[in-house]
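Entry 14. Ran structure prediction on the chain below.
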Amino acid sequence: MRPADTIEIIGKSKVQHGHFNNRAYVMRLDPEDIPGIIPRLGALAEKNGYTKIVIRVPYESKDPFLSAGYVPEADVPGFYNGTGTALFMGKYLVPGRAATCNPELTADVLATARAHYSAGYRAHLQRAYTLVEAGPDDAGMISSLYRETFESYPFPVFDPGFIKTTMEENVRYFCILHGGVIVAVGSCDTDTAHKNAEMTDFATDLGYRGQGLAGCLLEAMEEFLKRQGILLAYTIARATSYPMNVTFARAGYACAGTLANNTNICGTLESMNIWYKRLVTGA
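Output, structure tokens:
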């Protein structure tokens, strides 16, 4: 198994980078680092031979990045405290990295998902299952499920220690149990400063797929986030995955755009769709 990419602080911003995803990804951008972070990211990518830089930027701060060769790939209105728009921007350092992989398949997945859009869908969990928030003692079972589900993953979720560490930060894991065993899991990574959360790390045991368990987890996490005052939820979903894209569209999420050849998941670099939803009406 290849080592996961490094997460470090550059300036005041949180950056993941490495050869596993062959990119530098600014996970949290501090406004004070604009525009100084641009040459620092360029130098980091050049030194290591990365082929892509990804960053999420407030719309009003986009100009220095556009001038530096970044291109908008997705825009999420209401990302910052329910009002400000976030742009997901990419800079491609080799031409081939910018070409969307499997364009016909990704287009069909997106069209299929949009056809399932619903503003009032409610998930239903069968009585045989129990949905709970996970704790540190569940980290081993969670990481085992991730190992069984994904050939590769952009973050070290196969390591129970990583799961425990994220639980101590801003990530809350929710799981569905059957007979005392975790058969489905998802998480929400909360940015309380900007009142948004990323819905991520969904996995369902092979024998339990097709029962809408991811949708049940998503709905439960949304209700939790609403109680925490979170105004917007979003996800970064594999562009070739019918189940996950349909799950979010059916739950009322809108597609904001696609990040080309962005993430090493399931054994290869894949393009990723951004979906978002306002959790509070009028927010």
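The radius of gyration is 18 Å. Will compare against last week's run tomorrow.
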